[in-house]
Design goal:
- This protein has helices at about 20-35, 40-70, 95-120, 140-155, 160-175, 175-200, 205-230, 235-240, 250-260, 280-290, 295-300, 315-325, 345-360, and strands at about 5-10, 15-20, 75-80, 85-90, 265-270, 275-280, 305-310, 330-335, 335-340.
- It has about 350 residues and is an alpha/beta fold.
- It folds into 3 domains: about 1-155, no CATH class; about 160-230; about 235-360, CBS-domain (Roll), CATH 3.10.580.10.
- Helix 2 runs antiparallel to helix 3 (about 95-120), helix 3 packs antiparallel against helix 4 and helix 5 (about 160-175) runs antiparallel to helix 6 (about 175-200).
- The radius of gyration is 25 Å and the shape is elongated.
- It starts with a strand and ends with a helix.
- It binds zinc ion.
Length: about 350
């Protein structure tokens, strides 16, 4: 994610913090200073929010470590002011696994809340709930209440909340993945609407959350739509067959010539009939800035390349684009280069398919 910094590594997963998170900290400092005009209340406020976000990290780790049990890695965890995001490499296809991964996060908050409750009850420190407020009351008890709230809030049956994923998985068992996602997304957006209206009357912060839920639901519906359009299509149908390849010792001046003469922006690099790298327009521009037009392709190309067989389903390739920095996939047919495919190709194909499908219905 742009605008985020790495905080550290937990269980082999990078934890990032987003720049907007510091706005939240600044807001906490300011509001506590206004309320108490004492350094102590500011320090407690910031300590509380940091401890709360530690719970959020543990919640995300719950998702990530459960996904790992099913062989799914997590690229990173990012902390945002509204909570955390665990960026899984992919979602499990099996609905039962999706339910387990989705439930693992809120379960962590339940366990934390139970632990705190057990401790507070044991030392006889529980105060009645009506003596608690957002900024007042015993630290640990407030933390317990917030963890209960986190578990409940995340179980709302709306994307991108964990409850939305559970709902989708349950629906998937009845109606298939694509229709289930569409239905779950509609329910999510309906809920967002209610939440937003409620927010207008009660608390403006809810409007902000409603917006976040609305966008999350729309994104999920969009990706399900794309999946249904891509299903049954092979890489061979979308690939570009009319393209130029370049050699590793071509100069960048030659690539400029080719770029200007046609519409191709990304080039496969071939040596002895084999694709050994890829030169995208971004690589070209960076190479030009660093070494000028006499640099060779070999010096600036990406050597980490992805390859697909001509008969492979297109959605598998789409996943490669979405989960890695990869911009161009070379397509082979019985080992020989048959074409290339990039995101533009796939989007073009989607557009055509959509129009043709609309005409049919
Ligand atoms: Zn979660």
């Amino acid at each position: 994610m742009k605008w985020s910094w790495k905080l550290g590594r937990l269980a082999g997963i990078d934890v990032h913090v987003h720049a907007t998170f510091f706005i939240l900290i600044a807001w906490i400092v300011l509001s506590h200073w206004r309320a108490g005009h004492s350094l102590a209340s500011v320090v407690t406020g910031v300590a509380f929010i940091l401890t709360l976000f530690l719970c959020v990290v543990l919640h995300e780790l719950g998702h990530a470590l459960t996904a790992r049990r099913y062989g799914i890695g997590t690229r990173y965890i990012t902390l945002l002011p509204i909570g955390g995001v665990a960026m899984l490499e992919r979602m499990p296809r099996d609905p039962k696994q999706e339910i387990a991964v989705a439930l693992a996060g809120p379960m962590v908050n339940v366990v934390i809340a139970l632990g705190l409750w057990g401790w507070l009850a044991a030392v006889n420190a529980l105060v009645p709930a009506d003596q608690l407020s957002v900024a007042g009351g015993p630290f640990l008890e407030r933390l317990m209440v917030v963890n209960i709230f986190l578990a409940l809030f995340n179980m709302l049956p709306a994307f991108p909340m964990d409850g939305g994923r559970v709902l989708r998985a349950i629906l998937t068992m009845r109606m298939g993945h694509v229709r289930a996602t569409r239905t779950a997304a509609s329910i999510g957006q309906g809920l967002a609407l209610v939440l937003g209206l409620f927010g207008l009357l009660v608390n403006p912060f809810l409007i902000f959350i409603a917006l976040f839920v609305w966008i999350g639901a729309a994104a999920e519906a969009g990706s399900a739509h794309m999946q249904s359009a891509l299903s049954g299509v092979t890489v061979g149908q979308a690939m570009l067959t009319d393209f130029h390849a370049i050699a590793p010792n071509d100069t960048l001046a030659r690539v400029i010539e080719l770029t200007l003469a046609g519409t191709q922006k990304d080039f496969p690099v071939m040596a002895e009939e084999r694709v050994i790298g890829v030169l995208t327009q971004t690589d070209l521009l960076q190479g030009l800035r660093a070494g000028g037009e006499h640099s060779t392709v070999n010096e600036v190309m990406q050597k980490d390349i992805h390859n697909a067989d001509i008969a492979e389903p297109l959605d598998a390739v789409m996943e490669k684009f979405q989960t890695s920095e990869c911009r161009l996939v070379s397509v082979t047919s019985s080992g020989r280069l048959a074409g290339i495919v990039n995101l533009d190709n796939i989007l073009e194909l989607l557009q055509f398919q959509e129009i043709l499908q609309e005409r049919e219905t």
